[in-house]
Amino acid sequence: MRPGSMAGPSSMPRLLQILSMPRAVPAGVVAGLLLLISGWSCRVQSPYPRDATDAALFGPVAMRIHPIFTQIKDWTGDDRPDGIEALIELQDQFGDPTKASGRVIFELYEYRPYDPDIRGRRVVNPWIGDLSTLESQRQRWNRTSRTYGFQLAYDGIRPDRPYVLTATFELNAGGRFFDRIILEPTQPKAKEPRGVQPEQPEPAGRAEQPVAPATATTGPSTQ
């Protein structure tokens, strides 16, 4: 049919059929689009290496255990505490949250309020959290709080007792940070039944046996 001419009665059904058919995209065009998207994605995911200036400006200078969101938690939904949800925040020299690679060692102690060293007896073996791989960084990083999150599993934790939680961040590039907080009780202390002797502290001078640290953050070691 010539440009400008009108479709006759015989050609109208064919024209409507052509217009109603979905337009097929040539395979070559699809392949080109996929290559273009793939190339753009690779450019986005490949970071530029930091030089000495970037490291000096934006490297971590301080660390803290987040005092508000680090709490005894029940993350299985059975109304019983499963352990401690600990959030670690790193800050650069501008006071902004930043990231770093390395490992975090958590230790939990009884609380001694009237002692120069508030850390009492260590109640469980250490937890060790790895932050040296891309996968672990993605798994641990919380974009809302701008912190690293760790679930420190410990079935024997008591929500009616205070504890001292410490964290040591050992950087892969060298150096370390340390912080500690007091975990306040989240429930009132249970009353001792009549006729039951209260729990006695260990005799003074009794040294704690050395214990090998755990190698996973999902729960304390049983070694």
Provide a descriptive summary of the structure in words.
The chain is an alpha+beta fold and 223 residues long. It has a domain of 125 residues: Immunoglobulin-like. It is 19% helix and 28% strand. The chain contains 4 helices and 11 strands. A hairpin with a 4-residue loop joins strand 8 and strand 9. It is globular, with a radius of gyration of 30 Å. The chain starts with 11 loop residues before the first helix and ends in a 40-residue tail after the last strand. The N terminus is likely disordered.
Q: Brief description of this entry?
A:
By secondary structure, the chain is an alpha+beta fold.
C-alpha end-to-end distance? 86 Å
Overall geometry comes to: globular
SS field, number of helical segments = 4
Tally of DSSP β-strands: 11
CATH top level of the domain at 59-183 is Mainly Beta
Binned, the helix content reads 10-25%
Order of helices and strands: HHHEEEEEEEHEEEE
Biggest sheet record: 6 strands, antiparallel
CATH domain topology of the domain at 59-183:
Immunoglobulin-like
CATH architecture of the domain at 59-183: Sandwich
Mean pLDDT: 79
Which percent range describes the beta-strand content?
25-35%
Q: Give Rg in angstroms.
A: 30 Å
Question: Segments where pLDDT lies below 50 for 5+ residues?
Answer: 3-9, 198-218
